[in-house]
């Protein structure tokens, strides 16, 4: 399977799970179906973070939002950004995947 096909399948599955019944549910717990620390699990987690973040950014753009709620959401967005950054820095699974896939050495 091409890597792009794999990514698209993972992202699509994640979006469908996140948006069950078409609802935005930023509070639902992520249920990652892939093996822990695998490249597939990391891609799924990154996509989940992206979807929650996009929804939070939509909420915070409301001009009538309560300032206390806006601050809480802003902090959530900041935490989400850090999780996404940390995920990218823990890229061992990506390195291993590409080494196996393309026969690359260290």
Q: Mean of the pLDDT scores?
A: 85
| Sequence stretches where pLDDT stays below 50 over 5 or more residues | none
H/E series, N to C? HHHH
Shape: elongated
Radius of gyration: 16 Å
Q: Tell me about the biggest sheet?
A: none
Number of helices: 4
- In total, the number of strands is 0
Overview of this protein structure:
- The protein has one domain.
- The protein is mostly helical and 106 residues long.
- The chain is elongated.
- The relative contact order is 0.12.
- It starts with a helix and ends with a helix.
- It is built from 4 helices and no strands.
Write the SSE topology:
Blueprint: H1 3-18, H2 39-60, H3 67-89, H4 92-102
Helix pairs in contact: 1-2, 2-3
Key features of this structure:
106 residues
Task: Produce a short descriptive summary.
The chain is an all-alpha fold. It has one domain (3-102).
